[in-house]
Specification:
heterodimer, A: mainly alpha, globular, B: 335 residues, Rossmann fold, Alpha-Beta Plaits, transmembrane (chain A), membrane (chain A), ABC-2 type transport system permease protein (chain A)
């Protein structure tokens, strides 16, 4: 398209129309090499989850009654939002469950892969000036974007084939339907990759491009969910979401291939749009100019505390929103799960042995697992935020601040105070979100007060995470990553400890071991006081160490 | 902890300062002082210990041994109080990517406690900086300007500048030089670390040259120049062999010109008289003599040290013989 308006002199310099694609092959090889680890891990993870879910569904739902219990759950609004459109519920089987419930999440994972891949290889490269070097070489204008698309299609194809083979091998599922499901999911995800490429032409920054593309996915998620809630199996509205295009192939129920065409058409249309937009903008430029910010700081931006808040508030907001919604949604499923497990226990003596046979206690056990998940998420948040000082220090920003009249204690105190407060808020939002979801769905065995106890008994355990990272930061800033080791340890011990039957001290290391069981009557004052003590000592150690050591820049 | 002996104490006084990072001796017995109202240049190649010295002065690093004093106080123990009285510009400025330049300037000025919007506006104009852009979109030079505006925006008795003009274009360098002169005229003491010699030459009263963590030379610019050579270029009709034979003349080069023989050479300032006598007999058509630039001082100094150390690991890697010829570039010729 550019050659049509180019003056003759330029035309001789660019002999072929395809010159805008020169170098694509080399770039494809380069990207595959550059991303070999990343793409391998993605592929292995996705294929693993296909395998695992096929295996797990076959194992736990070999009883038709259990499968019908699950089908009943999938008819509820919560089931539709967290699962799928709800087809094939009359004769629910492993394949139908995979197709009905799994596609949303597979498309989510593959769409994230697609969006990150496209942004990483186009806008992020341009922003970092690396591709300036590439483009200055014998490489056509569209070559980087086309190479990114080609590599993405290759990876998606590999994932689709391996996943389908895994389903056939592990679950003994129908071959055509398995391939339909994985190929459909891959193409839906590619639509979001193509969206990301268009967004990359419009906005100027990689992070903005990623955010906007993920927002487009979120809209598609909501449209699909609302559309399916309006009519079981999907309404007209559902069809406006690319996620539905994979689901509506109705694999394992009555397979039809034509919805795939919608994905293909959408991908082609978006790529053409991206190419047109790309030809109209400068290298490194965007169609939407970054809008100017404020030339003066708000009156509130005064001192290290305000700065720490400014830096952490968006992460806190998004974490609260995301995790809050997730635990709220999990809460709404509680009554259904209680009934479901109850029914299963009645019908299946093996499961009764596994879960016990008191339905209300089953639910409490389930809630305690959810609370553990929520608490581990908050611990991860605490570890990330407690590492903020290190980020500030190694970037050199702390050096600038410390050349002003700001003491080490005041600065670190500000960082940790905001981190700690944020962690507490996130915990409260998560736990009360669970409560609110359960209460709205009609589960009233535990009230607001019971959940409040859960919140404040978990606080000292989370403070230990914060304190540990602070102490490491004060004395051995290189080792702050060990905070993650404690998060992982806590999670593994909490989830699998009972099964593995480990010695007592192994549990004692985990900060959550000092936290009482949810909704139990046991006395816990001593354990909690100990946790608070440990947290305080670690934090004080951090302050002392940081006051004594050199600042490390770079 | 807060009582700072101020009367009569020098703004900066460093004596026999050592700073070790493990086995590395970043500072190895450094001496440096800056008097009140003085603009002191702090010269040295990369990795010679300039930034380490400045970080010790800012209380970011703790000295291994020796003493460093700011206004007579301990920069580690009394950091907070001392920082009310100084402003610092690092050589590589990192900002908060999501804040605008203007927000960063306000935040930093408020930390020091005396923001002055009029002065900020005036400096933004002088440095031609758009304060409404997000820091992540700034070029290196613009990030540098943010730090400079923030530093000059408050009036303080001491400026510590660590290679502050990295990334600035020549016009902006001129603005910077002017601001430093202004500050000095008002009695502000300045420590200006640099490896750009012309910059130091323009504004500094005294110069300390640091190498491998130790001050190898210090004094006023004139004192340093006095010890060294000037560069002479002349066109003569006669045979320049007589000049070449004189003691104190180095690296004489000849070039046939339509008007005669163009000669250029370096001469020890002590031998200038005999050179002029010799030249006067050669029918001189044109003559220029340039005082040594710091560039020459600098290269010569490191060159000598390099030759004394044999194969030194120092990055300059210049042999002494080549130095005198090296600066016959625009720097020397302009004088």
């Amino acid at each position: 398209m550019s050659t049509a308006v180019a003056p003759p002199a330029v035309r001789t310099a660019e002999p072929a129309r395809g010159a805008t694609l020169t170098g694509t092959g080399a770039l494809v090889r380069f990207m595959l090499r550059q991303d070999r680890v990343r793409l391998t891990v993605w592929t292995a993870s996705v294929v693993f989850f296909y395998t695992y879910f096929t295996f797990a569904l076959n194992l736990f739902f070999d009883d038709p009654a259990a499968m019908q219990g699950r089908a009943a759950l999938m008819e509820t609004p919560a089931g539709i939002v967290m699962g799928g459109p709800g087809y094939g519920l009359d004769d629910y089987s492993t394949g139908v469950a995979m197709s009905n419930e799994g596609i949303t999440w597979m498309v989510l994972a593959l769409a994230i892969l697609s969006i990150l891949h496209m942004v990483r290889h186009t806008r992020a490269e341009e922003e970092s000036n690396r591709s300036e070097l590439v483009r200055a070489a014998v490489v056509g204008r569209h070559a980087p974007a086309v190479a990114a698309i080609i590599t993405l299609v290759l990876v998606q194809a590999v994932i689709a084939v391996l996943s389908a083979l895994a389903m056939v091998a592990v679950g003994d599922l129908a071959v055509a339907d398995s391939f339909a499901m994985t190929i459909g999911s891959g193409l839906s995800a590619l639509v979001f990759g193509a969206v990301a490429l268009v967004v990359c032409q419009v906005v100027g920054h990689a992070r903005t491009a990623t955010g906007v593309s993920l927002a487009v996915f979120a809209v598609a998620f909501v449209v699909r969910a609302v559309g399916d809630i309006r009519e079981l199996g999907g309404s007209t509205l559902s069809w406006f979401s690319p996620i539905a295009w994979a689901q509506q192939m109705r694999a394992f129920v009555d397979l039809r291939w034509w919805p795939v065409a919608l994905s293909v058409v959408a991908i082609v249309a978006l790529l053409v749009l991206a190419a047109v937009l790309a030809s109209r903008r400068d290298f490194g430029g965007s169609l939407v100019e970054t809008r100017a910010g404020r030339p003066d700081a708000a009156v509130t931006l005064r001192g290290p505390l305000a700065m720490a808040w400014l830096q952490q508030r968006w992460a806190l907001l998004w974490s609260c929103l995301g995790l809050g919604l997730m635990w709220f949604a999990s809460g709404t499923m509680l009554p259904g799960i209680g009934d479901m497990i109850g029914d299963m226990v009645v019908d299946n003596p093996v499961l009764a042995q596994l879960f016990g046979d008191d339905p209300s206690q089953l639910a409490v056990g389930f809630i305690s697992v959810l609370v553990l998940y929520a608490a581990v998420c908050c611990a991860a948040y605490a570890v990330v935020m407690a590492q903020r000082p290190k980020v500030e220090e190694s970037s050199g920003r702390a050096e600038v601040v410390f050349s002003h009249p700001v003491s080490r204690h005041r600065w670190l105190g500000a960082q940790l105070a905001v981190a700690g407060l944020g962690t507490a808020v996130l915990l409260a939002v998560s736990v009360y979100g669970l409560w609110a979801g359960a209460a709205i769905a009609g589960w009233e065995d535990q009230g607001f007060g019971d959940y409040s106890v859960v919140v404040w008994t978990h606080l000292p355990a989370l403070a230990v995470f914060l304190g540990l990272v602070a102490a490491l930061y004060g004395w051995a800033p290189r080792l702050t990553g060990l905070g993650w080791a404690l998060v992982a340890y806590t999670f593994v011990v909490g989830m699998f400890g009972q099964v593995l039957d480990l010695p007592d001290w192994v549990y004692r290391v985990s900060p959550f071991d000092g936290v009482p069981e949810v909704f139990s009557e046991e006395s816990y004052a001593g354990d909690l006081a100990l946790l608070w003590g440990v947290a305080v000592v670690l934090t004080v150690l951090g302050f002392v160490g940081f006051r004594r050591r050199d600042l490390v820049t770079g | 902890m807060t009582s700072i002996p101020s009367a009569g104490a020098l703004p900066i006084e460093i004596h026999d300062l050592h700073k070790h990072f493990g086995p590395t001796r970043a500072l190895d017995g450094l001496d440096l002082s800056v008097a009140e109202g003085e603009v002191a240049g702090f010269l040295g190649p990369n990795g010679s210990g300039k930034s380490t010295t400045i970080r010790v002065l800012l209380g970011l690093l703790r000295a291994t041994a020796g003493s460093a004093r700011l206004f007579g106080a301990d920069p580690w123990r009394d950091a907070v109080e001392l920082h009310r009285r100084l402003a610092y510009v690092p050589g590589d400025v990192t900002l908060w990517p999501h804040l605008t330049g203007g927000e960063a300037i306000d935040f930093l000025s408020r930390l020091r406690g005396k923001p002055d919007p009029r002065r900020k506006a005036e400096l933004l104009e002088a440095f031609e900086l758009d304060p409404s852009k997000k820091a992540r979109t700034y070029s290196k030079g613009n990030r540098q300007k943010v730090a400079l505006v923030a530093a000059f925006a408050t009036e303080v008795p001491l400026l510590i500048l660590d290679e502050p003009t990295a990334g600035l274009d020549p016009l902006m360098e001129a603005v910077f030089t002017e601001r430093v002169r202004e500050a000095a005229a008002q009695g502000t003491s300045v420590l200006l670390s640099s490896h750009i010699l012309s910059e130091v030459e323009k504004v500094c009263d005294t110069v300390t040259i640091i190498r491998a963590g130790r001050a190898v030379e210090s004094g006023t610019l004139d004192e340093l120049r006095h010890l060294t050579r000037s560069n002479v270029t002349a066109v003569v009709a006669g045979d320049p062999a007589r000049v070449a034979a004189l003691d104190g003349v180095h690296d004489l080069q000849t070039h046939e010109d339509p008007e005669g023989t163009r000669i250029s050479f370096d001469v020890d300032n002590t031998a200038m008289g005999s050179v002029l006598t010799a030249l006067s007999g050669l029918d001189v058509r044109s003559f220029t003599a340039a005082p040594p630039s710091l560039e020459e001082l600098f290269l010569r100094h490191y060159g000598d040290d390099v030759s004394a150390d044999g194969e030194s690991t120092d990055g300059t890697g210049n042999a002494p013989g080549r130095h005198a010829a090296a600066p016959t570039t625009s720097e020397a010729g302009a004088r």
